[in-house]
């Protein structure tokens, strides 16, 4: 079990509205590491394709997002934890929002 999947389980158990997964990149990208290909919105129906496109540890974040959504979480945000005020920035819609 990794931290992202554990967080997904906790968010589901708490019936959280949102799960925020912070990382060292701006979010999920179509063509990693090209940050200009950041996926800002991702419907839950496209998670399987996103998982195939994800590189390295981002695959675990996408898997955690999928598990959280299946567990009743309304949205998952994968966002940059390296910036100032990462939580408020993510909640404002910066990063990849999966619903």
Order of helices and strands: HEEHHEHE
- Whole-number count of domains: 1
CATH superfamily: Acetylglutamate kinase-like
In DSSP terms (H or I, runs of 4 or more residues), the helix count works out at: 4
Write down how many β-strands occur, each being a DSSP E stretch of 2 or more residues.
4
Q: Ranges with pLDDT <50 over ≥5 residues? A: none
Largest sheet, in brief, is: 4 strands, mixed
Question: What report would you give on this structure?
Answer:
This protein has 99 residues and is α/β, with parallel strands linked by helices. The protein has a single domain (3-98), classed as Carbamate kinase (3-Layer(aba) Sandwich), CATH 3.40.1160.10. Helix content is 37%, strand content 17%. It has four helices and four strands. A four-stranded mixed beta sheet has the order 1-3-4-2. Helix 2 runs antiparallel to helix 3 (58-70). It is globular. It starts with a helix and ends with a strand. The mean pLDDT is 95.
